[in-house]
Specification:
By secondary structure, the protein is α+β, with helices and mostly antiparallel strands. It has helices at about 25-30, 65-70, 90-100, 115-120, 125-135, 175-185, 205, 220-230, 240-245, 280-295; strands at about 5-10, 35-45, 50-55, 80-90, 105, 135-140, 160, 190-195, 210-215, 235-240, 250-255, 260-265, 305-310, 320, 325-335, 340-345, 350-355, 365-370, 380-385, 395-400, 400-405. The two termini are about 25 Å apart. The structure holds zinc ion.
């Protein structure tokens, strides 16, 4: 029996911080992309080392209203789950020394923002630790943007979020941050991988992002949070180089990599810097780009590849199995372009790759049943990459199934 699936976006912004729109008015857009849930992760900024909450954006005193707005933005088909993206306000030299990074904090059920020790923190890392001590789960946001993962012990990190920007998708499985993830897993830390659009406007930015797909989980906020943190999930992504270009927006040097690559993505607050968009209402521009995105495709759930099944001796992603010499493994998928490889990674190494001679190799709907020697391994996870004409790429990345001796 394939596991039931809920599709979602784990990183979104509204006008509580620097997003273009209100929380409730964005729900129809996310729903039209096929998202069953989204985490609302507006910026919550603390000032360190002064130990005061910063005045900018989402504030501790806003929490009740924020959570109520998320409830009001929830429909029978789409759950909006309140969380925060923690940032910090600090003197420039301190920021330079500590490095810039954001973490997402998922509150425990029924709780609000963390207490006194959080605000009294003398460093950003200490603030995150105070939130952890208060029961919050910590996911390092967009790890590909140079998050200093080594600043935390593996035990403190509950999850890693891969950046969503479709223009940075390629190559996915060779990203340094995935190697770091494998190192954490290999040293025994159970850290899940999730993704989010970091969308500040509900057009191609949010629509074309990686999806986090949770498995066998009820349609309920605490259960979905638990599933994301436990890694009872996989990531799905589709990428086509023409999507952004089709909007007609000019390519600009990508600020994320210091201009090494070009990006068509323009946040709404920079519209005024783009001659083409100058003088236009940001909402009108976003609405037009949303409509084009729906025409172009690769924003709807049906445009994404699906990991229909991934089982290691019956356990799904985030589960646990006993080590053995011949552990049965089953993978099944649906893609829109032919898979180039399907492989299993264990303890940071490629364990097994689907042979090119296999009858399902390169099939848009494929099943691969095999056995693997998992003795001495800590985990096994699945990687699938598919590619078509015009550099269209699809990616499926399963969270690990853990192995116990
Ligand atoms: Zn963000």
């Amino acid at each position: 029996m394939p596991a039931t699936q809920l599709w979602g976006d784990c990183h979104t912004h509204s006008h509580y911080s620097d997003g273009l729109m209100g929380i409730a008015e964005q729900t129809p857009y996310y729903r039209s992309f096929g998202d069953d849930f989204r985490f609302q992760t507006d910026h919550f900024i603390i000032a360190v080392p002064d130990g005061k909450p910063a005045t900018k954006w989402l504030h501790a005193s806003d929490w009740e209203r924020y959570a109520a707005d998320c409830r009001a933005a929830t429909t029978r088909e789409h759950l909006c789950i309140p969380a925060v993206e923690l940032g910090w306000q600090a003197p420039a030299e301190l920021k330079k020394k500590e490095g810039w990074f954001d973490t997402k904090l998922y509150p425990p059920a029924g709780q609000d923002v963390p207490g006194e020790s959080f605000y009294a923190a003398k460093s950003y890392v200490d603030a995150v630790r105070a939130a952890k001590a208060a029961g919050f789960r910590m996911v390092i946001a967009h790890i590909d943007q140079g998050a200093p993962l080594e600043r935390f012990s593996g035990a403190e990190i509950d999850g890693l979020e891969v950046r969503s920007d479709i223009e940075e998708l390629r190559p996915f499985f060779t990203r340094a941050t995935l190697k770091h993830w494998d190192r954490m897993l290999t040293t025994g830390h159970r850290v899940s991988l999730s993704s989010g659009s970091d969308g500040h406007q509900p057009d191609l930015w949010a629509g074309s992002a990686f999806r986090t797909v949770v498995l066998d989980t009820p349609f309920e906020a605490a259960a979905i949070t638990d599933a994301v943190i436990a890694g009872r999930s996989y990531l799905s992504s589709t990428w086509h180089p023409d999507s952004f270009a089709a909007l007609g927006w000019p390519a600009r040097p990508n600020p994320v990599d210091g201009g090494a690559s070009m990006s068509h993505m323009v946040p709404w607050w920079e519209f005024k810097q783009i001659p083409l968009l100058q003088g236009r209402d940001p909402r009108a521009v976003v609405e037009e780009s949303y409509r084009k995105a729906m025409e172009i495709g690769r924003v709807r759930r049906e445009d994404y590849p699906v990991l229909e099944d991934f089982r290691v001796a019956g356990a799904i992603c985030g589960g646990c199995v006993k080590a053995g010499a011949k552990v049965p493994i089953r993978a099944a998928w649906k893609t829109h372009v032919p898979p180039r490889f399907v492989r299993l990674v264990a303890d940071g190494q490629s364990l097994l790759e689907m042979p090119t001679s296999h009858p399902a190799f390169g099939k848009l709907e494929g099943v691969w049943e095999t056995e693997a020697d998992l003795r001495g391994k800590r985990y096994v996870r699945l990687e699938l990459e598919a590619a078509g004409e015009a550099s269209q790429v699809e990616v499926l990345a399963g969270n690990p199934v853990y192995v116990e001796a």
